[in-house]
Amino acid sequence: MTQRIDYQKQSPELFRKFIEFSMALRHSSIEESIHDLVNIRASQINGCAFCVDMHVKEATIHGERPLRLHHIVVWRESPLFSARERAALTWTEILTRLPAEGVPDDVYERVRAQLSERELSDLTFLVMAINGWNRASVGFRAPPGAADKAYGLDKSGLS
Known about the structure:
Elements: H1 7-10, H2 12-24, H3 32-45, H4 49-61, H5 66-71, H6 83-96, H7 105-112, H8 117-139, H9 148-151
Helix pairs in contact: 3-4, 3-6, 3-8, 6-7, 6-8
């Protein structure tokens, strides 16, 4: 498959603003390791090869263990994730696959038990951002690995 249009060049100001938004999330109350898990899981759900590739490489650079990366797709059955990480993954999945009836109270309460109000709000913005990137990358068929050098992902040792 070939990339369709280069949305970054077609809408440079909007792209720059979305990058700024995404970069601001690095200073949120959500720790880097959960950022990585959320970005990978939403990208898996959305079938975004570019973003799965990118965020697995980022997580590797950040020191994430390979086995945990393999277990993200089966996180419910895996013993490798903390209660806080499970809450973040639960929230990621429910907001990425919004049910017709909305977010059930029991899901909200389970997640809220692990995250402060600020953390839950910040996590929601993180999920919003990765879902937006997924939609652009899937819609315009961004090829996996295409931005490795530009984003320093070649340092991951994965290619």
